[in-house]
């Protein structure tokens, strides 16, 4: 497979959550609901955000064929992608992440790959990048909150890393653990936003799929802190929160890992979290989305438009049940 290697959800669509049974869950729900209301006026604020500048290095990439994009899927601007971010370790304000994260130090960096593997290893970041020539992949990005972007990521397929460590036959899942660094990430200093570290996971066949990417950059430049520097997971047919940022550990395991959002609030966030316009979030519809930078809403596509490539992974599963 060759790969080119504003109103948001209306407040009336977000109801009170009577089933939240403690203060921590209430705060988490309130944070998410509040962040969804900001999308509509993003285009008005990006100019002001542009005064926050950062220097990035260029990445040499292999240019190949795009996949899964529609004629109206124009990549969002670098400014939009780097100044509208969910990264709760830094801030619960989307526009607030970039200025808070701008001094985040992501080198030196290593990633420990452990668990059910013949050759577990700790990789230096430069070793990881050298696993293959970086590829540019222009993917749709769909947030569970109801907004979307089109992002030209740079990175390498996750299966290249997994091949290096040789998963054992009983390795059925892959767990991703992100960094805990309260000295650089202020919301890890005893706040009640989430439990840290942030953990995500994939089934092994999802992790090995050619579309699954470990991103090290975007728009041909090294990844900025607000976008998950220096290494983040990108799974384009799943909601964005499945993509762990600033990964420090990858673990191959036999049983389904306990991931952050599905542990914190299983009623609203499942393990699989495939983009599915027929399965609503308990507090809003998932049938449509707001593309950042556009007016109006557009229909959400099953598997975020990647059904032809990934639907076979879920044959026989009730997609309404396994959100």
Summarize the entry for a quick read:
This protein is of the alpha+beta class and 323 residues long. It has nine helices and twelve strands.
Biggest sheet record:
7 strands, mixed
**CATH A-level architecture:** Alpha-Beta Complex
**Arithmetic mean of pLDDT:** 85
Helix content: 10-25%
The fraction of residues in strands falls at 15-25%
Name the CATH class: Alpha Beta
The helix/strand class is: alpha+beta
Total count of strands: 12
- Count of DSSP-assigned helices: 9
* Series of H and E elements: HHHHEEHEEHEEHEEEEHEEH
Gap from first CA to last CA: 27 Å
Describe the structure.
The chain is of the alpha+beta class. It has one domain: Sulfite Oxidase, Chain A, domain 2 (Alpha-Beta Complex), CATH 3.90.420.10. Helices cover 18% and strands 20% of the residues. The protein has helices at 23-36, 42-49, 78-82, 97-101, 125-129, 158-165, 204-207, 260-264, 307-310, and strands at residues 110-115, 121-124, 135-142, 147-157, 173-178, 199-203, 213-218, 221-222, 232-234, 247-253, 288-291, 298-299. Strands 3, 4, 7, 8, 9, 11 and 12 form a seven-stranded mixed sheet that branches. A five-stranded mixed sheet has the order 2-1-10-5-6.
């Amino acid at each position: 497979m060759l790969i080119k290697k504003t109103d948001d959800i209306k407040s009336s669509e977000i109801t009170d959550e009577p089933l939240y049974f403690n203060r921590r869950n209430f705060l988490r729900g309130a944070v998410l609901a509040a962040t969804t209301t900001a999308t509509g006026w993003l285009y008005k604020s990006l100019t002001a955000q542009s005064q926050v500048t950062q220097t990035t290095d260029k990445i040499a990439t292999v240019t190949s064929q795009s996949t899964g994009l529609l004629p109206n899927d124009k990549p969002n601007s670098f400014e939009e992608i780097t100044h509208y971010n969910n990264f709760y370790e830094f801030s619960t304000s989307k526009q607030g992440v970039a200025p808070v994260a701008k001094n985040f130090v992501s080198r030196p960096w290593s990633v420990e790959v452990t668990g059910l593997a013949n050759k577990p290893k700790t990789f230096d970041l430069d070793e990881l990048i050298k696993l293959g020539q970086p590829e540019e992949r222009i993917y749709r990005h769909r947030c569970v909150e109801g907004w979307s972007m089109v992002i030209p990521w740079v990175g390498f397929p996750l299966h290249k890393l997994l091949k290096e460590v040789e998963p054992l036959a009983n390795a059925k899942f892959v767990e991703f653990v992100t960094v805990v660094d309260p000295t650089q990430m202020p919301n890890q200093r005893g706040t009640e936003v989430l439990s840290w570290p942030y953990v995500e996971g994939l089934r092994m066949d999802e992790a090995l799929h050619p579309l699954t990417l470990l991103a090290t950059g975007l728009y041909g430049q090294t990844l900025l802190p607000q976008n998950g520097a220096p290494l983040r997971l990108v799974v384009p047919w799943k909601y964005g929160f499945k993509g762990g940022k600033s990964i420090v550990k990858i673990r191959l395991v036999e049983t389904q890992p306990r991931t952050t959002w599905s542990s914190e609030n299983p009623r609203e966030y499942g393990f699989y979290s495939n983009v599915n316009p027929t399965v609503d979030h308990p507090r809003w519809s998932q049938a449509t989305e707001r593309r950042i930078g556009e007016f109006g809403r557009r229909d959400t596509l099953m598997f975020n438009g990647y059904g032809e490539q990934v639907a076979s992974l879920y044959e026989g599963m009730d997609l309404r049940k396994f959100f």
